[in-house]
Request: fold
Amino acid sequence: SELTNADLVPFLRSLPIFELHRAAPPDGEAAPAPAGECVPLQRGVHCVAPPGVPESLLAGGRFVRSGSESERRLLRFLGVEQPARSAFFRSHVFGRLADLPAEARDGAMVSVLRELHALGLEDAGFIDSLRELRFVPTAGGSLHRASELFHPKVHAAAELLGVEGAYPAGVFSAPDLLSALERLGLRGEVTRGAVVQSARSVQELSASDGEAALRRARALLRYVDTHAATLLAPRPTRGKQRGSLMSMFGQSDATAREADMEVSTFGDELSSISWLPVLVDPPESYLPWDASQTSVVARSDAVRPLGDLWLASSSSRILDGQVQDQSLTRVFGWHKPVNLYALVTQLGALGALDSSSEMSYRQTMALAVPTLYRSIDTALASPAPDAADDGASEAALEALREQPCIWVGSGFVRPAVTALVSPLSLQPHLYVVSADLQSFGSLLRRLGVRDRFGSSQLVRLLEDLAFRHASAPLDSASLEMVLSVVQQLASPQHQPLPPTQIYLPDTACAMVVAHELLFDDTPWLSDSLAGGQQAAGGQAASILSSASKRRRVHPSIAHETAARLGAQSLRLWLLGRNADTFALGQENVEAFGQYESLTSRLHNILELYADGVGILHELIQNSDDAGATEVSFIFDQAQHGDQSLLSPSMREWQGPALCVFNNAQFTPRDLRNICSIGSNAKLAAGNATGRFGLGFNAVYHFTDVPSFISGSHLVFFDPAAQFLPGATANNPGLKIKFAGESFLEQFPDQFAPYLLCGCDMVSPYNGTLFRFPLRNKHTASRSQLRKEEYSEEAMRGLF
Reply:
């Protein structure tokens, strides 16, 4: 029977007479017949390859061989489809490029590029799909999208990405193919995306090849800085029609720029990638440096430009290169000054470095430190954004105060041992800020530097030297320093001194606590002993022998200076060698005085009551009050010795004096009465000689320092506390127990004027002897009681 077409087609399809091209099994399907075998046709599976397609692309067991035109007509009759070339490549080649041999792959894609215009017209989506395909080989052997590579005319790309990964290689570098690749996005200039791509390549390369990464990072930085104006400019807005047209026929450079990333995204990307080249080794000597940081690249937030080298090298990586464009510095955040924490850290790190005696070290610091101080000063002056930042600033400064952070010309020292000015050179114990840093006084004060050294620092210096040398003598330089410090401590500006022990050098140049030292202010005793002139019984010599066992103040220290700093006067030591109850430290000498007295009150009394014979009457009354039956007035016109005195200032009162004797001893009550001023009891006694209230105080018409001997005691009054050793406003006088002591031997000039009327200054005196040395012109000029001299002629006039 005859077969119809409807019966014939299925029949023919079922016959195993159709030879396939060499096959490879598609994923998930059964293996096809071996090459050369004939198979039946399967609708939707088998097809005929477009003409001119290489055999190497026809794997997969789908393509039926058709060697002649008659065979092709038969296959068309049987419904075997022949896809268009664009569909063939998209469906049967693009997805298998990675599996194809390089030669077959490149051959196929070269064909595609050369037919690109026709294929694009045939399939509107063909070019777009090709743009996403990684098929362009580079010199390094990797495959890339066309848009990831650069035209060879873009020479900068070689530096940014390396020759092996920047350009199309092999046959794809032919001019006609480059033109086709440009339509697929081949870059004709370095775009923002390309820069970010380069930055990422630097970051990746740094893990395996530091040198190569550093070279590329430097090149990228130079490029970005040079082209920052373009890279950071907003992209222009273009019309939709032009964009659609270029989508069809390819991309121009302008179109590529339009498709590039936004400026803000570009800046964020550059800031988030570790690509900036940084120095690994310090570029200058004496620079604080973190040697543990060995990576050759870093993120922008960890980097500071080279200009901040001496401000931030201890806490930030330093850029290996230069950035000139201000917009780019803003992207990296370098337009903001180094923050206070980093500055403080830098200063602390500088101070922690081992100082050097080399001139280069001092020259380097002389340039670096002022810059650092100025930056810290500026940072502190800038308003803090909030209270937390202000607190952080204070905490940073507080940490510095205990660190060596003050440059003094030869090294760094702690603020506590530094002052802005000092008349003394006290290194290496205390230091003065260098002259070129004085302008930073406000900052230095905040760090704890003083305007000048106070007494506590000077006292501590002496204490440190004492502990450092123990009992060993000071060397000449240290001794010279100590003597200058001692002189400063004794000056008025350092009074009163802190309540602590002060160390002074002794005659052997060893440091000793001041109160354990004596200064010899009794040269007459030492001289007489040296000459063999000992007093009878040798008591003075015995006393001096005892004193000689005490350590003496260094002879270069003045007596007044030694006394102010706590050393003992030999005079006072002689007065109070058995002392344990006297306020001044003496046993036989008591604080004594007119408890109601003030110089102003005495002055007023003297203004109200004129001097004259009435004073003598008052002295007679005092004797009468004491129960005396005999009174004598003696005008002693002698000028007595002025060397061996209780105090050098007492020499003013060794001249002519009125002496008054009576044969009664003062009782304790009499002593209390004679100390009163303007006694109300006497004022009430109208029939008494002293009823006008002048009392004993009238003698201040004559003198500023009245005294008397009665019984075992010698009493001095010094209302102004100017002349007697240890006299104060509260205790303006001395009460000395002389009986049985050797005071006459020790202070012969002081006590010789009392050798009158049977007084020998050794035995208790059975009576009372007053002495009123007359006020001369010199003492009158300094007197707080009366400014008039009391002449010898005036005294004779009283008699």
The CA atoms of residues 540 and 621 lie 39 Å apart. The first strand starts at residue 18 and ends at 19. DSSP finds 35 helices and 24 strands in the chain.
